[in-house]
Amino acid sequence: MVRTALTRAERERGERFGALLREARGQRSMVEIAAAAGLSAETLRKIEAGRIATPAFFTVAALAGALGLSLDLLADACAVLDADGGAHGGAAAVSAAEDAVVAAGDARRGTRAGEHGPLRPGVPIAARAYL
């Protein structure tokens, strides 16, 4: 079976998805989240790195459950960007999804808004993963 090459937009969406997962995982280990989702740590590493840009629905659903994220939030954050850089279905969707990930992380860590530690508000979520 020959698999067609991914488009640039699909690869970029996979990178955004991976960055979102890393952000949501926070200080928890990759092994912990992978085990909770029923995946291998290697699979999660590849998804977070963008090497698996189009994971199966049930993989995404399992990760969402393990991280306490809604599938709607993930879909909005990873929407395909159009030529102008806006997300299909609303340009603010990615920013709103980032805010929801930060808020979910605050709730899990028991911190208040603004006490993000390594999370840096105002820095794009993809860039935060490398800080």
From TrEMBL:
| Pfam families per the UniProt record, alphabetical | HTH_31
Q: Name one GO molecular function term.
A: DNA binding
Q: Which domain of life is it from?
A: Bacteria
PROSITE patterns tied to this protein: HTH_CROC1
Tell me where in this chain the HTH cro/C1-type domain is found. 21-74
Q: Could you tell me what this protein is called?
A: XRE family transcriptional regulator (Modular protein)
